[in-house]
Design a protein that fits this description.
With about 90 residues, the protein is mainly alpha-helical. About 50% of the residues lie in helices and about 10% in strands. It has three helices and two strands. It has a two-stranded antiparallel ribbon. Strand 1 and strand 2 form a beta hairpin. The radius of gyration is 20 Å and the shape is extended. The chain starts with a helix and ends with a helix.
Length: about 90
C-alpha cells in the first residue's frame, strides 16, 4: 500500500511539473520589447563597463542591468525603474 501511494504521488508530481513548465515556457517565443537605454536603469552605470550586462525579461520587455546584483534593487521597486525606461522610450520617439 505504501508503495502504491509513493508511485501515485510520483506520477502526479511528474504530470504537474510538466504542465507548469509548459505554461511558463510559452512566453519564451514572445519577442520582448527592446531596452532603449545604454546604461543600467538601477545604477546609471554604462552597460558593458562591468562586463557583460545582465539581461532579463520583465512583463514582456527586455531589461538590462550592469550586473546581476542590481537585480535585487530592481525587484524591490520595479515600477520605479520601468518608469525610467518608459521615459527614455518617449524621449527617443520625439
Amino acid at each position: 500500500m505504501k508503495t502504491l501511494k509513493t508511485l501515485t504521488l510520483a506520477v502526479l508530481l511528474t504530470a504537474l511539473g510538466g504542465s507548469v513548465s509548459n505554461t511558463f515556457g510559452a512566453d519564451k517565443d514572445e519577442k520582448a520589447k527592446p531596452y532603449p537605454l545604454d546604461k543600467c536603469v538601477v545604477s546609471d552605470e554604462k552597460l558593458g563597463e562591468m562586463g557583460k550586462p545582465y539581461v532579463f525579461k520583465h512583463e514582456g520587455r527586455e531589461v538590462q542591468l550592469c550586473c546581476k546584483s542590481c537585480l535585487k534593487d530592481f525587484r524591490k521597486d520595479p515600477a520605479k525603474y520601468l518608469k525610467k525606461i518608459d521615459e527614455a522610450e518617449a524621449k527617443a520617439k520625439k
